[in-house]
Amino acid sequence: MFRTVQPTDLSGLVLFLARALPNEARPADKLGIGQQRVWTVQGLMAHWLPQEARHHTFLRAKGWRISGLVSVRSYPGLAAWEVDQLLLNPEEGETCRLLLAQLSLASALAGIERVFLRLPAESPAVAHAQQAGFHTYLRESLYLLPAPPAPDFLAVPNGLSFRPCRPEDRFQAFRLYTLSVPLGVRTAEGLTMQEWQETLAVRWRCRGRAVEEIAVDKESGNLAAWVYTLRRGRTGFLTLLTNSGRPGSEEATVAQGLAHLKGQPIVTLLLPDYIRSGVGALDPWGFQYGGDYVSLVNRMAVPVPSTALAPA
């Protein structure tokens, strides 16, 4: 039976979690923190208490025996969910496919348009998710930097100027995203500025101190880079977009991000496969390869272009 978690499930969940099952889901803001068993009794109680990021938790159970659990987080006003917990009984291979298929149905009934899921690239759950209707749209490599050094030795290339991102910069940031990200990825993460902003909110809207900056090309006035950093506990998260073409611009963008994460014991960066050339920008600091991941999405609502009469 597939159903939501209820307070009466507490004892069964404690027994299920006592098996120390690994969490197959890898949300971006948990990478580098540790992916062992994340749930605790306190975590269970949080699912029944009001908080900014609401969790919707579903399980498959027969009587009191639980065979799998999936949890998604959502935010008010957003039509997207992200899977942040996927715990499975390895003895029941069909559990993953059934859980994710029924999760998709529940999300559609709730009016959710997209459900995101990140998994280790070699996980058997990838095939099960695809059978449940999820589509693989992106492969990323994780890079970790323990005790990042001060990046003040790298100068910003001539013609670029970094400054904080302002609300009026959102459209240009979206234009940079459109120019630098392949269509297949944009179809999943957002063909419109609203969808893209919603994807960023679902992925990064968590407790922590965030800094968002842009690099402006002084000659054209266009955005050449976008960098987003987040401090969460002992981990710093770095994500960026570049489309400058100027020598040294990628290295300078990484340095700008690291400057905001100075003092963090570890920094994580997910590098998409479509910018493999960016690996060289990580060399000056000694980032360490941390594995490959795939991002999947199940889109319940597909954008359909509508015709309209042009004004006379």
Describe the structure in your own words.
The chain has 312 residues and is an alpha+beta fold. It folds into two domains: 2-133, Aminopeptidase (3-Layer(aba) Sandwich), CATH 3.40.630; 143-294, 3-Layer(aba) Sandwich (Aminopeptidase), CATH 3.40.630. Helices cover 25% and strands 32% of the residues. It is built from eight helices and twelve strands. It has a twelve-stranded mixed β-sheet, with helices on both faces. 37% of the residues are buried.
Please count the helical segments.
8
Shape: elongated
Run of helices and strands: EHHEEEHEHEEHHHEEEHEE
Number of strands: 12
Which sequence of strands runs across the widest sheet? 1-2-3-4-5-12-6-11-10-9-8-7
Overall pLDDT: 81
Query: Proportion of β residues?
Result: 25-35%
Write the layout of secondary structure elements.
Elements lengths: L1 E3 L5 H8 L23 H6 L7 E9 L2 E10 L5 E9 L6 H15 L4 E7 L4 H7 L3 E12 L13 E5 L5 H11 L2 H7 L3 H12 L4 E9 L5 E10 L2 E8 L6 H12 L5 E7 L15 E12 L13
Parallel strand pairs: 4-5, 10-11
Antiparallel strand pairs: 1-2, 2-3, 3-4, 5-12, 6-11, 6-12, 7-8, 8-9, 9-10
Helix pairs in contact: 3-4
Summarize the structure.
The chain is of the alpha+beta class. It contains eight helices and twelve strands.
